[in-house]
Give the backbone structure.
Amino acid sequence: MEFEVYIYEIVDDQIVRSRIIEHSGAFCISTKSDTVAFYLNTSDRSVSGLGYWYAERIAKTGFYLLSKHEKPMMLIHVDSEFTVRKATDTEVSLFNAGIDWAEHAIPSVNFLLHNFLKVGAEGLAGVIKDGMTKLHVVPTVY
Amino acid sequence: MRHKLIVYLYKDEQLVKGPELVHNGSYCIVGSNDTARKLTASGNVLYLDTETASGMLYMDTNLKLAKGLNGWNLRRISCNFYVASLAGQQVLVYVTVNFARVATEEEYEAFNSAVMFAADTLYAGKESAEVLMYRGIEGLVASYKAQIDALRFARLAKED
């Protein structure tokens, strides 16, 4: 099975598609260029970082967070046509707002201790995740 | 000092601009809007009784301050976005000095996906257990806060 792999570079804070590579799944893309940021696999819509870059999909959306040296660098959006763009200022603002909002869900020490004793470490993580999930603002449902 | 207050009502999942009020700290003057039946003021706190109890927020244009109304709690989450909540109901709203609206679908998606992203990041039972063993429960809290903080995307961050 062959699919297309799009290579993207970030030049002057903009995303530039540099070349298209036919990919059979049998070989890997390698680059020594530090400017190459990520590639997009059209078969499964996955975005992967290259070089020192790391890409992580945000929930089940078209947004991805690009990091370099573990530092968040750029929020991007990939649409159904595989068009990649930087997130708008509003989207970035809302992303950060969502993170800020989630921080409030981190419970108190006493609450954590109580749940740890009751349900263990994994249960504790589940309690925290449940707390954050409840922060979702309607009407968007995943 | 007289403050101009704009009241917004939440009707049919939309924000509707209600009466404009003039407030001097001790009383309010109701604007021409039939939805406001009774208005009293105590200090800087407004009480608005409407037939539908749909009052949601007011904006003080002098102080550039938005506050909840009729039991609604308004929490500012970024420069113009607020989460308004009432008895478990939550609405994401965008408020400026002279305009208010509910968030668009895209804005909801960006906001909610970030919350889910944060939840996924913190959902690591094994890591939690290891941190607990070595740093205790307070260390775990600090670890969670540090992870959340690291997720925050700095708009101005650029390549080194």
Remarks:
- Chain B touches chain A through 53 residues (CB under 8 Å).
